[in-house]
């Protein structure tokens, strides 16, 4: 039994810079070095995690090998051993390689149906082998907690650290109380790395803008989101002296912010007032976002980078995480979050931007006032991990 390290698992890879930001920040809170289990080890070594983790190990893929997939499917169905695939996937850190504390990097994993089986099976597997588990920094859709299997899974964790109050309250109301804590997302503590500003950037006049394929998939009216972004940029160029910086935050082939960004950039490149940023690590992207005057973003951790830098921010959201974080910062999500599902007219996002302009200084003052204490509460999540670590005598 190896007791010297903590395992971080359910990490999808640093090409999603929100995932990178969580691991980067969490590593600074842990009482011991962390081994990172990942879907994309090359990505994690390419950005900011290589020096922070004591080891980076790639999960063994079940789905991509037809023979392996068939074998474990048979074990699940015929031998009634659904955890066998998880033992294969995580064999670098289970069985003879088991560590005593395993942290599921929660984020919004429980918001996606295709993740649920893997989340529950891995939690059960690590427990069956004698380890403790933590669900860290999570958002959970309240409706999901009506599922008895999910409730049993939540109770199995030795600790759940909810990152916003809507999730925390939903867990409490569902009867999951003893093992639940409320601490902001660790990415509110992410380091900031400043790099030279790109050509076309004018200090004090930049509106950072992020769009993602995820919000396009959640829109109710086909094409309405890009139409709103186009109308917004045109409105900004026509009525303000602001410039627009298009900033990607996820660059996976299957889910790449740069694709919708390219569409917007091509529509306005000739104006000379719209620029697009290249891919970079989470700390570098935070450095750019933090130097914007205003920010409008679809990716949660792009908006966390803005909030934590004191930048007045509007969120184009699609799930409980955006509403919960805004509510905790401002007392309400009304106005601060525009759900993509509510976009019906091409002027909806423009109207929200006009509201943001009117609220710019009050929001800036509010963030300056609440952020130090909010970040301290994020830092205190490390104490929950530390207590579990000490209970194991580690």
Low-pLDDT residue spans: none
Our count of helices gives 15
Helix/strand-derived category reads alpha/beta
Radius of gyration: 21 Å
- C-alpha geometry: globular
Count the E strands.
15
What sequence of helices (H) and strands (E) makes up the elements?
EHEHEHHEHEHEHEEHHEEEHEHEHEHEHH
Overall residue-averaged pLDDT value: 92
**How far apart lie the N and C ends?**
12 Å
Please outline the major beta sheet.
7 strands, parallel
Share in β-strands: 15-25%
Q: Strands of the biggest beta sheet: in what spatial order?
A: 3-2-1-4-5-6-7
Helix amount? 40-55%
Your description of this structure?
This protein has helices at 17-27, 41-46, 66-78, 84-89, 116-128, 148-156, 165-173, 213-218, 224-239, 258-268, 282-289, 300-308, 320-330, 348-379, 381-391, and strands at residues 6-11, 34-38, 55-58, 101-107, 132-138, 159-162, 180-182, 206-209, 243-246, 251-252, 255-256, 274-276, 294-297, 313-317, 337-339. It starts with 5 loop residues before the first strand and ends with a helix. With 394 residues, the chain is of the alpha/beta class. β5 (132-138), α6 and β6 (159-162) form a beta-alpha-beta unit. The strands form 3 sheets. Strands 3-2-1-4-5-6-7 form a 7-stranded parallel sheet, sandwiched between helices. Strands 12-9-8-13-14-15 form a 6-stranded parallel sheet, sandwiched between helices. The chain has a two-stranded antiparallel ribbon with strand order 10-11.
